[in-house]
Amino acid sequence: MWLQEYPIHYAGCDFNARMSVIRVTDTELLLHSPCEIDPETKEAISALGKIAYIVAPGSYHYFHIASAQAAFSDAETYICPGIERKLPDLDFDWFLGDRPPKAWAGILDQVLVRGNKHIWEVAFYHRSSRTLLLVDLIENFTDQTPNVNWLLKLWWKAVFRMWDNPKPAPEYQMGWQDKTAANRSLSKILEWDFDKIIMSHGDLIEVNAKERVLEAWAKPLSATE
Ligand SMILES: [Fe+2]
Question: Fewer CB within 10 Å: C terminus or N terminus of the chain?
Fold first, then answer.
């Protein structure tokens, strides 16, 4: 698995997002939450193998899909449900759900996280590295996080209380509508035997990963049937 961070600007805040490239067969790669693919990035990725799959894994993680499709025109595109409403002109092949397609079954498991009215995503588990791969279900901004501006620090420290305190993106925290559905999805994720977390925003979590997730998701997990 290869990772690349790239800068984004959203609601006055500067911070990084993270793209992952995952090997799914001896020759084929999956591009997860792509950044804009400029010629240099295309060359670097192409040196690793053939991009066969482009994945837009979350309801806020689809902005550079067209750029990835232009760069890797033979790849199939999989999207998190709901993106088709935000981008009606997007050309895509498949929706992501709870069951991995044959293309990466055995390499990655996945869960469509339900129950939120503002934001949603498909979480992945990379079996061989025991890694949980999220976009916005955990954010982990700390003093070590590069490329964050003063406004993001202000909001994350003073308002959201999420500085050095991994939590779901604010949109998640304000939008748990069907906590039973959310609990069911998050509980499925917790069945995976992960010991590290790659997320889109903030520092990777490589110690006490499951404990930190349990703490971060305490609210939706507290819902009962
Ligand atoms: Fe995000």
Answer: C
